[in-house]
Automatic annotation (TrEMBL), chains A, B, C, D:
It comes from Acetobacter estunensis. Signal peptide: none annotated. This is Chorismate synthase. HAMAP family: Chorismate_synth (MF_00300). This reaction introduces a second double bond into the aromatic ring system. Its cofactor is FMNH2. One of its GO terms (cellular component) is cytosol. Its EC number is 4.2.3.5.
Length: 358, 358, 358, 358
C-alpha cells in the first residue's frame, strides 16, 4: 500500500520522486483569508536547501516553490493549496549503479520487495528530497497557527558530541551551519564532521523541537493524542529511529516525585514548576512548551564499502558515490519543525471544531 | 476533539470510562472465516489483569470479555466484532477527592481544560483501564496475522536497573511477575520495587516488543510507514513518553559503518548480518524481526504529596490514595504486544489489498 | 471489506446482527457539556419500533437503549458514547430455512459471495434492525445541532399512491401509522396496504426529509459536499435505491429559467424566491431548508414464491415466512431523519473547525 | 471545511481553480507494475474536452495531461501519481462581472457565505473544470480494474426528450455529439438544443452509466456500501441533483414480485432473470452489471436574466455572458464513467485486502 497523506482537518498529501520531473504537495483544509504567498514559504525551504556548507550534500537546486491553487489575490480561499517544485539538478548519471544493487540502510530492498519495481534514481520516492514538501506545508501550517505560536528546532547531538544544555541560546541557531544552539559545540562538530566526511563515513544526530505559545486543550484522545500524532509524524521523517516527548526515555529511571511537574496558582493562572512531561498530559496540551526530540541515524550513503546483495542475487560490496550529507540529521532540523507545525495546525482545527474556540 | 479509532483496514474503536458501567471496543475489518471465541481473547486479558502480585494494583476484576457480534458459530463473519467487559469492582469512594483537585502527571487538568467537564472517577476515559480493550483487540489481530507471526514483549528496565542483555531468555518472561526475560534481575527488581511501594512512591520502566515472522513488504510509505504507525500506536499508550525502533537513540552516536546492516545471499535468500534497523527500512518491513522499545514514566498516583492546584483555583497538596501500580510499566508489556499486533494486522491487510498476497 | 463507521468529526460506528445478543453503536466526536440521557434517545427509537400497527412487522421488542459511556452526571464529556440495545425477541426458529437458500432481493447471496460465510438468522448484519442504532445516533446528533435546527420526515408515496402536495401538513405526520403529512391519503394507503399484506406481497415507498434552520456554509467541497454526503448516507439505508436533493430528477426536464432560484434582498437578508436546489449549491448549504427524498424498494421478504437458488446450487422456490413489514419504507422515515441529523452534525463540526463559528 | 480527497485505498485528491495557473490531481494507492502513460489518459480527457460541437462551451483548451510522478519507465511504481494540466485559455476578462454579483444556481453565494472569500474567475474551485481531473483519475482506475471490466455511459434524456430504450445501441454513443445510444433521438435533441442555445437558455439531462464484468463481492457494508459510495461520488459531480441505482425511484411503485430479480442455476452458475437491483444487493456487487443514473440540472449560466443580489447587498439582474454549455449534462457522461471507475477500483482493492483475491 501507498499512503501519502497526513492530518485530519489540515491534510497534506505529498508526491514526487527524487529524480522525477517535479515534487509537490497538496495542502487541503487550510482556513480561508490567511495571507499567503511564495515569499512566506521560500525562506523555510532555503533553510533546508542542500549545498549551503561542506557538511550537506552538494546537490544544488534553487528549490523555488510555486503556488498553483488555493490562493487568490494573496489570500487563502479555503480550497486546496497545490505547491510544486520543479526538479532542476537531477544528474541521474550519478546514481546509475544503484539500479542493480541494494544499498544497506536504504529503502532499496524494501521497496523492491514490496512493489516489485522501484525508481532507483536517487532513491526515488524514498529520497529525503520528499521532505522539501513537508517544509513547504509546514510554512502554511505556521500561518494557521498564527504569530502566537513559535516553533523552533535545534541540533543537540552529532555522534557522541552533545551540546551543553546550560549554554542553550536560540539566537545562535541561525549563526552556524549546524542549527546548533550552543556556540561552543560548533568547532567541535566542525572538526569531528570534517573527519567523518574525509573518511567517506557518516554519523547520526539528535534534533530537538520546541513549540511555545501552544494553547492548552489540543489533542484528540485516545487514538489521536497530540504526542502520539507527533511521534508518528517525526518517525515518518527519513532515517528517524526514535522519538521522545519531554524527558522521554529518562523518565524510565525517575521515581514518581522526580517526574511530577508540580503546579501552583500565580495571578489566577496555573503555573508548572517543571516540564518533564513536555507540555502534554493524557495526550492533550497543557499550555506549557511542547518539547520533542528525535534521533536520525547516520546517512546510509557512504564511500566506505558495505557487504550487500544485488538484484541478480549475488553478493556485492556497495559504495555509494555521488553527493551526500555526512550527517543527514542537520537538514532534519527544519523538517522536524515543519512536522510539529503541521500536527499542531491539524489539532488546532480539530479542537476548534469539536470543543470550542482557539 | 475526541478520536477513538485506530487503523485503516483493521480498525479498532474503543469506548468506556474507568468507573462507568462497562468498557468495550469494536473491531471492524477483521477478515471472515477465522476461528474466534472468548477463549482466544481471555488469556491475553488475564496476563494484563491487575491484582496478580503485590507489584500491581489491587483492584480485582475478572475482566471477562464477551463477544457481542461479528462471530457466528465460532467463526468471524467479516462484520464488526463488538467486545465488552462489564466493570464490576468500581469502588468509586476511593476516588472522591480527585474531583476537586488536579493530580500532577495525570490528565485531570488537561481534560478539564479541553472539555470543561471530566469524569473524575478513577481517571475516567484517561484511565489505563482502557488498555484492556487494546489487549482484547490485539488478540483478534493475532488471529489475522496467523501462527507464522510471533509477537512477544518483555520488561527490560525498571528505574535504573536494566536486564542483562546477554542473559535474555524468552522462556523466563512467563515465570515472574515482571515479564522479565532475565532471571537474575528478578530479585533486584523485587527488592527495589518493594522499597518504592513501601515509600508510597513509583518508578518508570522500559518495555521491548519483538515481532518475528513478519513478511517483508508491510508498510505504507510515506505517511503510513510501519515504524511511524508503530511509534504513534505505542506513544498512545498511557504514560508512554518515548519510542524507538531497532537501535533507536543509540544510532545518533553511530557512524555509518557501525549502523549498516550488511547483507549477503544464503541459499537464495537475503540474509542480514545485524538488525540495527529493527526490521524496517524506508517504512517497510524487511523480513527481519520488528523490534520496538518504549518508556513508561512513573505512575503519577502516589502517596507522596505533590504541590498542585484545585478546581477552585487554590494551591493544594495532592496525595493519591487508593489502589495503584507502583510501576505501571509492568502491565504495559501485554499492551505493547497488542499494539504491535494491531498495527501489523492493519498493514498486512493494506499490503494484500494494494500489492499482493501475504 | 467491512466498513461500519460514518462521519468525519461526528463519527458513528455501528455493530450487531439481527439475532445476535445485542446491537450497538459508538458515537465519537460528540462535543462535551450537552445534556444527554436515555430519555433523549428513546422516543426516536419508539417511533421506529416495529409492532405498532398491522402495517409493520409484528416482531415485538422494547428496544430499550442503554448509554454505557461518554455521559457523566447527565452531560456528555467529549469521550465516545456507547449505546447498546439488547436483543430480546430473537425467535430464530422463524428463520431456519433461509440458511440453505438465497432470498431474491436480499443480501444473502452477496454476503455469501463476498465473505464465504453469513449469519443467516434474520438477515444477520444486513437486517434493517441495524437502523435502530442509526436512529439512536441521530438523536445524539440532534443535540449537537441544537433546537434551532428542525429535522422532519414524511412518507410521500406508497406504490403508485402519492400524497397531495397541496395538503401537506406536518402536524398530521404523528397522527397516523404511515408518517403521512396528508390525512386524505391515509384511508387510501390503509386499503391498499391491507390488500398487499393479505396477498402476502409488499410494495415500495418514497420518503421526504426536510431540515429547517440549517445555517449557510455547511459542506466540504469537493468530495465532502453536503449533498454528496447526504446521498451516500441515505443510499446506505437498507433497501434504498434512489436519492434526490431538491427537485432532483425533475430538474432534468427543466430549462435554466425554470430551475433558477431567484434571489432578492429583504431587510438586509438574501431571500430566495424558490428552492428547486433543496438548500444546497456547490455542495454547501445556502440557509434554505435542506430537502432530500429517497425511494425504498418493496420488502424482499414475501409469502409469494420467487424462483431462486440454494447454497447447494439447486433451483428452489423461496417463500419468506415470519414477521415482515409489507412496506419497509414506512419505518424508514425516522431512519432518514436520523441520517440527515448525523450528516448535518458532522458538517457543523467540520465547518466550525475550519472556517468559524456556527 | 474543504475536503478534496475521495476513496479509501484508491485515493484521488484534486486541486485547482478554473482560471488558476493549472489544475491537477494526486492518485495515491494505485498498485505497482501497471503500464501507464499519458496516452492512456488523454483519450478520456479528449472525450470530455469542450469546444467539440456547438452544444458545448467554446472554451478551447488542449487539456494536455502530464504525469509528474509515480510512473517509472512506463510502469506504475506504487507511489503517488501526480497528474497536471496547465490552464492555457483563461480569458479572465469574460468573467469580471461575476465578482460583484451572485449567479443564481451557482456556488457563488454559498462559497462567499462559507469562506468569506472566493476566486470568482470562472467559478474558481466550483467550476466544472475540476471534473477534468476526475476523468484523468478515472483513466488510471480503469487500469486497476483491467480489461475484464467495461464501463460505459450514455445520455438518456435532455429536457423532456428521452431516448427509446428499445433502440439502445452502445456503438452509437461515439457517433454523435451527445453520447446518445439511440440514433433516432439525435436529430430531436439537435433541434431542441439548438433552440435552447439560441434563446440563451439551458436545459437539464439524465446520464446512465453501466459497468459490466464487475466481480461479485465488491462493497463494504454498512457505511461503505458500493451503492452508497456510488451515490456520493455521482452526487459530488457539479450540477447533479439525483442518483439512482438499478430501477431506482421506479421501485417505489413496484410490488415485491415485480421488483424481485429471480435466479436460477445455469451450467453451475447463478443466473439472474432481471436486474432491477442494478447489480447491487446489501451494498455488495452480485456479478450483474452495475447500473446507475443521475440527473444534471440545467446550466445555471444563461443569457436570460434572473433576479439576484450583489455582494454589496443590492437587487440585481444577472446575465451570464461568456462561453457556456447549454446542456452541461452532455459532458457529464465521461465524468460519470470516471466516478464509476474510481469507486470500483477502490472497492476492488478494499475487497482484495480484506477478503481475498479478485
Amino acid at each position: 500500500m501507498s499512503y501519502n497523506t497526513f492530518g485530519h482537518m489540515f491534510r497534506v498529501t505529498t508526491w514526487g520522486e527524487s529524480h522525477g520531473p517535479a515534487i509537490g504537495c497538496v495542502v487541503d483544509g487550510c482556513p480561508p483569508r490567511l495571507a499567503l504567498s511564495e515569499q512566506d514559504i521560500q525562506p523555510f525551504l532555503d533553510r533546508r536547501r542542500p549545498g549551503q556548507s561542506s557538511f550537506t550534500t552538494q546537490r544544488r537546486e534553487p528549490d523555488m516553490v510555486r503556488i498553483c491553487s488555493g490562493v487568490f489575490e494573496g489570500m487563502t480561499t479555503g480550497t486546496p493549496i497545490s505547491l510544486i517544485i520543479e526538479n532542476t539538478d537531477q544528474r541521474s548519471r550519478d546514481y546509475g549503479e544503484i539500479a542493480q544493487t541494494f544499498r544497506p540502510g536504504h529503502a532499496d530492498l524494501a521497496y523492491q520487495s514490496k512493489y516489485g519495481i522501484r525508481d532507483y534514481r536517487g532513491g526515488g520516492r524514498s529520497s529525503a528530497r520528499e521532505t522539501a514538501m513537508r517544509v513547504a506545508a509546514g510554512a502554511v501550517a505556521r500561518r494557521v497557527l498564527g504569530d502566537g505560536v513559535r516553533i523552533r528546532g535545534a541540533l543537540v547531538q552529532i555522534g557522541q558530541h552533545e551540546i551543553g544544555r546550560n549554554r542553550w541560546n536560540w539566537d545562535e541557531v541561525g549563526q552556524n551551519p549546524f542549527f546548533a544552539p550552543d556556540p561552543e559545540i560548533v568547532p567541535v562538530w566542525e572538526e569531528y564532521l570534517g573527519a567523518i566526511r574525509k573518511a567517506g563515513s557518516s554519523v547520526g544526530a539528535v534534533i530537538e523541537v520546541v513549540a511555545e505559545g501552544v494553547p492548552s486543550g489540543l489533542g484528540a484522545p485516545i487514538y489521536g493524542k497530540l504526542d502520539a500524532d507527533l511521534a508518528g509524524a517525526l518517525m515518518s521523517i527519513n532515517a528517524v529511529k526514535a522519538v521522545e516527548i519531554g524527558d522521554g526515555f529518562a523518565t524510565a529511571a525517575y521515581t514518581g516525585p522526580e517526574n511530577a511537574d508540580a503546579m501552583h496558582m500565580h495571578d489566577g493562572q496555573v503555573m508548572f514548576e517543571s516540564n518533564h512531561a513536555g507540555g502534554i498530559l493524557g495526550g492533550i496540551s497543557t499550555g506549557q512548551p511542547i518539547v520533542a526530540r528525535f534521533a536520525v541515524k547516520p546517512t546510509s550513503s557512504m564511500l566506505i564499502p558495505v557487504p550487500s546483495v544485488s538484484l541478480a542475487g549475488e553478493d556485492v560490496q556497495v559504495v555509494t558515490k555521488g553527493r551526500h550529507d555526512p550527517c543527514v540529521g542537520i537538514r532534519a532540523v527544519p523538517v522536524g519543525e515543519a512536522m510539529m507545525a503541521c500536527v499542531l495546525a491539524d489539532h488546532l482545527l480539530r479542537h476548534r471544531g469539536q470543543v470550542g474556540d482557539f
